[in-house]
Here is the input.
Amino acid sequence: MVSARARLIRDMVRIRTVEEILADYYRDEQEMRTPTHFSIGQEATAVGVCSATTTADWVYSGHRSHAPYLAKGGDLEALVAELYGKEDGCSRGRGGSMHVMDQSVGFAGSAAILGEMISVAVGTGWTFARAGEERVALTFFGDGASDEGVLSESLNFAAVHRIPVIFVCENNLYSISSPLSVRHAEGTSVHGRAEAAGVRALSVDGNDVFAVRAAATDAVEHARRGEGPVLLELATYRWRAHVGPGLDHDHGYRSKEEIESWMAACPIVRAADTLRADEPDIDAAVSAWRTEFQQEIHTAIDRAKALPFPDTARLLDGAYLPATY
Here is the structure.
C-alpha cells in the first residue's frame, strides 16, 4: 500500500520518467513534429495542485502542458499518440504537445497563446457558480503569461464576482530568456498584484510538493465554499530549454551553475528526503517506480508509432470554416 504522501512522489517520478524519455526520442528520432515544452524539474507544482482536485474540477494549462495533464490523470497513450500526430491522439493528432485534453478526468484543455486559458478558466468557474455547482476551475500559467493584460482583467472579474477559480502561476524565473529582473519592478510580485486586485494570494515553494498540496487544498476548499478566487505563486525552475528537449546553459541568459543549483533542489529528492525517516523503503520504491514507468512510456511510444495518421481528407474536421455563399 502506497501512502498518500508517497503517492505524490510516485506521480512526480512518473512525469519525470515520461518526459525524459520523450525528450530523448524527440531529439534522436525527429518523428514528433510538434514544439514541446517540458516540465522536467517542475513536477511538484502540477502534482501538488492537481492532487487537491476532484475529477469534477476542471484544469487548464498553457503551452507547458504534459505535467498537469498527467497529474490530473490524463491518458498517457493518448498524449503520446498526439505528440506523434496520430488519429488516436487526445486531440486526434491535430493539436500536438501544446493542445492536449482529457475531459474525462477534468483536464479541460491547453493552448499555445500566452495567457489564453486564464480567462477561459474564469469563465468556466463562473459557469459553475451560476449553476450552483460546487466545482472549481484551475488554470496553470508561467510568470511570462502573468505579464499579459488578461491576468489583471481576470483577477478583477473573478474578485468582483467571487468566482471559484484558482490561478496557478508556475514562476520559473524566465519568460523564454527574459529574467524577472528586466520585466518586473523591484519589490513587486505576481501574488502581490493579485492581492492588490482583491484576490487571496499565496507565495509557495514550488519544489516542495507537500507545501504545494497543502496550499492547493486550502485554496480549492476556499473557492469551493464560495469565498472567491485564489492565486498561488509557485517558485520553481525548468531544467531544460524553454522549448525542446535540450539544455540551454550556453545560450547566454542563464549559467550552468544556476541550473545545477536548482537541480540540487530536485523536488523528487527533496520529497524522498522528507519521507525517509517514516518510510525507510522510499528510495527502493522510487527506483522501482522509475523502472515501471520506463516500461510504460516505451510501450506507449511503440503503440503510438504503429497507429495511423489522420486521413488527409478529414484533416479539417472540428475546425471552424468560413461560410460559403
User: Anything to note?
Assistant: The mean pLDDT is 96. The radius of gyration is 19 Å. The longest helix spans residues 4-29. The first strand starts at residue 58 and ends at 61.
